[in-house]
Specification:
This protein is of the alpha/beta class. 42% of the residues lie in helices and 14% in strands. The strands form 2 sheets. A 5-stranded mixed beta sheet has the order 4-3-5-6-7. Strands 1-2 form a two-stranded antiparallel sheet.
């Protein structure tokens, strides 16, 4: 027996595909959307379509941007001798909020995870090595999440980058094991970046 009209069923199916959205949350969102003025829902839909069509990866660091090179890579005031490696674009935002880091970033778009069938080749690791080989980089800060996958990725990066003549450091403790950068507060992240250690 169908409890919802077919268009609502379709909306619920699509909403449930979002991370962290289960059936009840999908219903709340659907009912909220259906009670808005048509212009409001049209604006939301347009914003999603526009973001999806215009956003791409920065040619240098692989962060998300609407231009060929992101605003961080384009900023000549940043310290280009230090690269902070993160798993996801949202981690860049988390670190930028600390106002402690003035170097550049490199986004891997994931972490090595044999269970999920993600290997080094699936990440932007070779592009990172190429950036270091170009010269001028003296330190690479590995800011992967303190999870098993993040630690594995950090170890692989350290083994790969050390022979290239750069210091490879890791964020200091203070971040909980099993946690994600995006959920850490600015103070914790700030302390972690200033107290980083060599790996």
């Amino acid at each position: 027996m169908a409890f919802f009209a077919q268009p609502i069923e379709r909306l619920l199916e699509e909403l449930e595909k979002l991370p962290g959205v289960g059936p009840k949350t999908a219903q709340r969102l659907a009912y909220w959307l259906l009670t808005r003025e048509p212009e409001e829902t049209a604006a939301l839909a347009q914003a999603m379509v526009e973001a999806r069509s215009r956003i791409r990866r920065c040619r240098t660091c692989f962060n998300l941007t609407d231009t060929e090179q992101c605003w961080i890579c384009s900023d000549l005031g940043r310290d280009s001798s230090v690269i902070c490696v993160v798993e996801e674009p949202r981690d860049v935002v988390a670190l930028e909020r600390t106002h402690e880091f003035r170097g550049l970033y490199h986004v891997l778009h994931g972490a090595v995870s044999p269970i999920d069938n993600v290997s080094v080749d699936d990440l932007t690791v070779e592009a990172l090595a190429a950036r270091v080989r170009e010269g001028g980089v003296t330190e690479v800060i590995v800011a992967t999440n303190p999870t098993l996958e993040g630690e594995t990725t950090a170890t692989i990066l350290a083994r790969m980058l050390r022979p290239l003549g750069v210091a490879v450091t890791r964020l200091a403790s203070g971040l909980p094991m099993g946690g994600d950068l995006e959920f850490a507060d600015e103070q914790t992240l700030g302390r972690a970046i200033t107290g980083r250690r060599e790996i």
